[in-house]
Amino acid sequence: MIELQHISKRFNKGKVNEVLALQDVSLTIPEQEFVVVIGANGSGKTTLLNILSGAEYCTEGNVIISGTDVSRLPEYKRSKWIARVFQDPLKGTASDLSILDNFRLAAIRTTNKKLIIGVNEAFKKRVKDTISILGMGLENKLEQSMGTLSGGQRQALTLLMSVMDDTRILLLDEPTAALDPRSAALILQTADNLIKQYHLTAILITHNLKDANQYGTRLIQMGEGKIIRDLQKTDKAALTLPQMYEWFN
Amino acid sequence: MEFYITALILGLCLSSMGLGIFITMKIFRIPDITTDGSYTLGAVVTAILLSNHWNMGAIIPVVLIAGAIAGILTGLIHTYIKIDALLSGILVMTALYSINLTLLGRSNVPLLDVSNLFSVFTVFSNSVYNSLAIGLLFIVVITLLVGYILRTDFGIAMRATGNSTSMTRALGINNNKMKIIGLAIANALTALSGYLVAQYQNFTDINMGIGIVITGLGSVLIGEALIKWWNITGIPGQLITVICGSILFQLVLAFTLSIGVDPNLLKLVTASFVLLIVIIPRLRTAS
Question: What's the CATH number where A51 sits?
């Protein structure tokens, strides 16, 4: 599904503050794998995700999605395969637009935005049914603007929005970093359910080792722009939390 | 009374520009002042084509395209050369002054001896009411059209672009393209105001656009105050408040003139009035 071939990323090339964020990283992620990425700040986790999503271009190497080389494809074109949940809950939704309009946009992520009115009764019902699984009561506030909701609510909605259109890859960049523990648990549980239900290939970046231990089918630890540990399903399942804490000491 | 109805009609004619500024300022959050140039451009194109006995309906698409091109230029400079939106607008506006003057050939063209939009149709025998009815009808059509576009899938994408560029990129929207199209639509609407005003006033003047952007901004700001006041959320409601804003703006100016303020001070009054509109809602929230 995803192939990263010898990816390097250099910021501020030739200047005093030059940073080599990623050094010759190669990674192959087969379909329906749920990869959890951990690592200290500055280890290159987010850069890796940005290069995959197209928010940044790699300095060297190739990004291949479903057999297509997308290395130089802008982010908005890669949305054909990829849905994204950002660390900042405000980034994934449009504040001034209603919940309904936000969902409409998410439902046409992979297609052209045409001059037709797509928000009709059938669509409203679909959004209502989708949102009701959260049990937050938001299904009765579809006309309310996104800006009036809490960060947790917005993040939960962003997550649901990601599966409104055909999605192959779900990228979660510390989606719970700005949330309280209860909202965080709900978000990750919902994400896990969606990934299984829609057979998604997913990457989750997290600083929470407990979450890293609990979720996913593969665990990657990054350090100084390289992959330093890569645990497959059985190894990951056998891994205990104290062992993981040891890695960071 | 007729004096105020005249102001009302002018307000209607200028409300197309108000809608344009609403799109750039409120939807895209781009301060676009190409307006001064594209407004005059609309009037210049109208004057030339009317003088050449074009049908006034056939002029409309030409005016829209001319305005759209001005907006596209500002958009290209802003997004691809990555120049600040304000400066991009100033550059195109300045360049348009020369283009308008070249197209028009002289600084002022009267349109008294050609039939125009306000004289060709007769709804009422009284010419003032007739102009009012035609202006109103025209703006209703434009508002319905803009309201429709903003509620389509494309319109939602446009509105989201001004809100969260990270979201729109992730949802498959080319933000640069969106901004350029938005500026094109806004300036096409502005040029349409030039088309209406030139015909209503029966002349096109090369300087008619100077400082006109403040009128549009004022309309949007009054509209914004009304939106807060009445707690309006829907797109159609918001567009209507902009039109109310445009009309109110002209009525205030007419009132200023009627109480005997020196016309030379009109721009000062305009600027002060806009400042006042910005200040009043802040006072209300501060107290």
Answer: 3.40.50.300
